[in-house]
Specification:
The chain has 703 residues and is of the alpha/beta class. The strands form 9 sheets. The protein has a 5-stranded mixed beta barrel with strand order 6-9-7-8-12. Strands 14-16-18-19 form a 4-stranded mixed beta sheet, covered by helices on one side. A 3-stranded antiparallel beta sheet has the order 21-20-31, with helices on one face. A hairpin with a 5-residue loop joins strand 27 and strand 28. The radius of gyration is 29 Å and the shape is elongated. It starts with a strand and ends in a 5-residue tail after the last helix.
């Protein structure tokens, strides 16, 4: 089992979210993880397990493929420490027939003698057969305050008992420990899956329970096992502290080979090939009169150093570190620091984001974002601006038509009205049924693949028709939607979740849009009906939050269906504030303020982003983040006068727009701040347009 975790904070800026330490070549051409794969393949007699974060899934799979290693990859939704990772591997291994011996090794250590390492594992495995939980203890090369120590006891069954652990002592004490026979703690363990499970249940029951629950709800796709969200409840604790310091089964096998955890830049230099002056230079580096320096220059960057010694210079494309090697342990303080905000005020945010929309996003999606052969809007573009069309959904066609028609109504320079009408007409010819409703999904070439009409899609159809000014078709669609009416009030959606708030929210948005341009009472009545249902049924009295899924009597569902989405709290807040001002009804803004505060409970202070989901008690349920909740937070904050929050939301939006080609975006952010590498879905342009339009209205002089 390979533990593919660790933030590598002391190796900033080379190691950071999205490119963590195991995947950064530090002492040669191979990454530490690739070296660990090679060591595992040399010694394993069964399956190779890799436990890592979901944000590293693509890198783990790619490096395993390149190494020719077939591995089972267990993915953690968020990092919960080595105890939870080892528990997940043990629980997975126990699902197979019989007991198995697990050799557990970190993915990010430097080991110079793979044969000696393999011999140590085999010796430890022989001891583990008798039920011991064995760790490898390295004979220290020197007194170090950067590693932990194992205090060995009497010899027992081919190993030594463990008298205790000392975590990173001062250098003077480390020297004394070595004189007394202490060993370096390499963080390598060997034990049977059953022995591990037993000790985890005894000494870390909360971890064991959370891991089992996460495994029960895991999804399996090829070689990857993605643990369910219940895994996040596991306490984050190191395996040494949780198990090894308490168990009576602990044993240590002494080994002797060169080893380093390469945890900081001084350790990287010590483990790297060096020149006659003791220096290691990587990349386009020019050095003169230097001794014992480590200099790394990323591609495209030139670094020059002169007249210095015991210095580290690490130059990445967007960050540079210069530190004395004797201060290498302190680098971690920079790793956790959030980058400075892109915008200092709302006016500069409005200028930059409006320019991005007008000069990059709208032109790109009006050209590359339209399929010339079918005339339909494309579903997605890659970060390089290349089309990707797995399907053609009504929500995409309607949202994109709305965006371009709204751009024309807002008098943005460009052929936006023609773009909207051509694509929507092409869509209407293919998807509209005789009853006035639209099919839900087409193939990329425009053939209907899912003819069933859905309420959610038609909220966007009505919104697009409002921007296009097509009153006749809008009234026809509105009349046809009565087939979705529910006896207990509101509307019933097609599919597995018939009673939901979200479809109503977008229908409310469309009703308010039509109310502004069509005096017919049907739109005002529809908006008032939906708001009444929301105030009486969707919003909970206990927390002021709005729930998502309900039973047929509009009572909230429990269990996995009981979810609070911060993005929808903000989106509803924006709509209800608008409704309340139009009606002169104080309930609108009062409820909007409560929803806004509930949504703020889902803002991660470290990343400055609204997360995906909360529990009904407003605890974090899904710490990952998507783009669209950031735009909804921006809209709601501007509507309710929360200017500081609006500025933070604008900066969050800007972070998602940092892509190789302007005009596309990063859609999803992992809990650790890394972004998912995937195409940009067209659905988010609607959210971006409305968010930037609200910002433009707030600071019109900036645009």
């Amino acid at each position: 089992m390979i533990l593919c975790g660790g933030a590598g904070a002391r190796l900033w800026p080379a190691s950071r979210p999205g490119r963590s330490k195991p995947f950064v070549p530090l002492t040669g051409e191979r990454s530490p993880f690739r070296a660990a794969l090679d060591r595992a393949r040399a010694v394993a007699t069964g399956e190779i397990l890799v436990v890592g974060g979901v944000s590293d899934a693509a890198r783990i799979g790619r490096e395993a493929d390149e190494a020719g290693v077939v591995a089972r990859i267990v993915l953690e939704p968020s990092p919960r420490g080595t105890t939870a990772a080892i528990a997940a591997a043990a629980a997975w291994a126990r699902r197979g027939p019989g007991d198995v011996i697990l050799a557990i090794m970190p993915a990010d250590h430097e080991i110079s003698d793979d044969r000696a390492f393999a011999a140590g594992l085999r010796a430890a495995a022989a001891v583990a057969e008798a039920g011991a939980i064995v760790t490898l203890g390295l004979r220290p090369a020197a007194a170090s305050d950067a590693v932990g120590y194992i205090l060995p006891g009497a010899a027992e069954n081919g190993a030594l008992a463990i008298s205790g652990f000392v975590e990173k002592p001062a250098a003077e004490r480390a020297a004394g420990l070595i004189r007394d026979g202490a060993l370096w703690n390499a963080g390598v363990f060997v034990a049977s899956a059953d022995a591990l499970a037993g000790e985890l249940s005894r000494w870390a029951p909360a971890v064991a329970a959370a891991v089992e629950a996460g495994l029960e709800t895991a999804t399996v796709s090829g070689a990857c096992v993605s643990l369910g969200p219940a895994f996040d409840a596991a306490p984050a604790v190191a395996f040494d502290r949780a198990i090894m310091e308490k168990t009576t089964r602990g044993a240590v096998v002494p080994v002797d080979f060169a080893w380093s955890d390469v945890g900081a830049w001084d350790a990287v230099l010590a483990a790297s090939p060096r020149d006659a002056g003791g220096s290691s230079l990587t990349g386009d580096v020019h050095a003169r009169d230097v001794r014992q320096v480590l200099v790394r220059a990323a591609p495209g960057i030139r670094v020059a150093v002169a007249g210095v010694e015991r210095l580290a210079v690490v130059a990445e494309a967007d960050a540079v570190l210069v530190c004395g090697l004797d201060a290498a342990q302190s680098v971690r303080v920079f790793a956790g620091a959030r980058p400075p905000p892109k915008f200092a005020d709302l006016a500069s945010a409005a200028t930059a984001l409006d320019s991005w929309l007008s000069t990059a996003a709208l032109p790109l999606w009006a050209t590359v974002g339209v399929d010339e052969s079918s005339g339909l809007f494309r579903e997605a573009l890659t970060w390089k601006g290349e089309p990707q069309d797995p399907r053609c959904r009504t929500r995409v066609q309607a949202r994109q038509a709305f965006v371009f028609a709204a751009a024309a109504r807002d008098r943005r320079p460009g052929p936006w009205d023609a773009v909207a009408r051509r694509a929507f007409d092409a869509f209407r010819r293919r998807a509209a049924g005789p009853d006035g409703l639209f099919a839900t999904v087409l193939s990329p070439d425009g053939r209907i693949t899912d003819p069933e009409a859905r309420l959610y899609e038609h909220g966007f159809v009505l919104l697009a028709l409002a921007a296009l000014g097509d009153e006749a078709q809008a009234r026809r669609v509105r009349g046809a939607l009565d087939r979705f009416r529910h006896a207990a009030g509101g509307f019933r959606e097609a599919g597995d979740a018939p009673f939901q708030a979200n479809a109503h929210m977008h229908l409310l948005e469309a009703a308010l849009a039509w109310e502004a341009i069509d005096p017919a009472p049907m739109w005002r009545d529809l908006a008032d009906e939906i708001v009444t249902l929301a105030l009486e049924r969707f919003v909970t009295a206990e927390t002021g939050a709005l729930l998502e899924f309900f039973a047929a009597d509009w009572s909230p569902l429990s269990g996995d269906a009981a979810v609070v989405e911060p993005g929808h709290q903000f989106e509803w807040a924006w709509l209800l504030a608008d409704w309340g001002r139009r009606r002169g009804d104080p309930r609108g803004e009062a409820t909007a303020a409560r929803l806004y505060e509930a949504g703020r409970r889902g803002v991660d202070a470290g990343r400055g982003v609204a997360v995906n989901a909360l529990t009904p008690r407003l605890d974090v349920r899904d710490p990952a983040a998507r783009l669209w909740p950031q735009t909804e937070r921006l809209k709601a904050a501007l509507s309710l006068g929360a200017e500081d929050d609006a500025l933070e939301a604008a900066n969050a939006v800007a972070a998602f727009l940092d892509t190789p080609v302007r005009g596309v975006w990063r859609e999803r952010m992992y809990a650790d701040g890394a972004f998912v590498e995937e195409p940009s879905p067209a659905t988010s342009l609607y959210h971006l347009y409305l968010g930037i339009r609200e910002l433009r209205r707030f600071a019109p002089e900036a645009c």
